[in-house]
Amino acid sequence: MSIYKQRVEALVKQLPEDVDAALVSSQVNLFYFTGFDCDNAWLIADRKGCVYVTDFRYTEAAQSIIDFCDVIELGPQFSDTMAAITNQRGITSLLVERSRVTIEELDKFDNAFVPAKIKTDARLDDIIRTLRDIKAPFELELIKASQAVTEMSYRKLLTYVKEGVTEKELAIELEYIMRKNGAQRKAFDFIVAAGPNGSMPHAVPTDYRIKKGDLITFDIGAVVGGYHSDMTRTVALGDPGEEQKKIYNTVLEAQKAACEYLVSGGRGRRECDGVARDIINKEFEGRFGHSLGHGVGLEIHETPNLAPRSEGELAAGNVVTVEPGIYIPGKCGVRIEDMVYITEDSAINLTSIEKELVIL
User: Fold this and answer.
1) Which phi and psi angles does 109 have, rounded to 5°?
2) Could you give the CA distance from residue 269 to residue 310 in angstroms, rounded to a whole number?
3) What is the pLDDT of residues 86-137, one digit of tens each?
């Protein structure tokens, strides 16, 4: 049995008794359940099986990949196609992805699936989130492959860092290097933040020219096989001075402590955040303003999160980032980020790039 058929069956098994079927319409979740990437499709999964609907442009390709359910070509009228499917299968209620559909799409569904009722509570989102949080072995291997491309590209990029080069130039060069070395695409818009721009956690690369003594933060990642990687490193061009070294070393201590918490078997999401946050707050109260980490997989930001308000524990199969930072407005910023895979009784750091301060 294919992994995708297993996933659909796991989804259907968890459907509430008052729901006949799940309607999956978001591109990322359609890929998760079928292995086929398409921007105009719908998966209807019920207790009898499933139907995948797409338009003429994708029908042949979908049929060649999706072998565990019927692939139906969308007719001239969306409502006619969907009504025929639901009536044939005796579907009277469908649960949709509350966090993914727009108001316009809901109106479209309400009209197309009559007399079936569209249910918009968050139960389908919760089921899918629970499934996606636990990475299968092949997903972990793709995340590792993505990280390998990221690390190879980062090492090459450091040879381009010199006085006078701009943040934009480095970001553009990095994307070229990644694509040349096997990335499907970049995982997100890179953050390259030097000097005073480093104080903005989500800084956009600018025409700022790097100067001697600047700290430079690189928040980068690649996509391989649909799966993302996420890594942050901060380096210095020349001696950054004692104050910036202290900032860096404080972040490094916090980051290592949080990783060690996970490796030693710690599972509390809020507690892991607290390990890093307490270290930073001793010296730089209030300068670590974002959460410690987030899940990574088919999307760059997934659950579970590591944050002061997080509840519950991590589980074996989760992949999360550990990325504390310190940000001093108008002066500098430092962030260090690894991806960590949670095992039954420990954790594996998926990031191998050195974390000690690199002075170029």
Assistant:
1) -65, -45
2) 6
3) 999 999 999 999 999 999 999 999 999 989 999 999 999 999 999 999 999 9
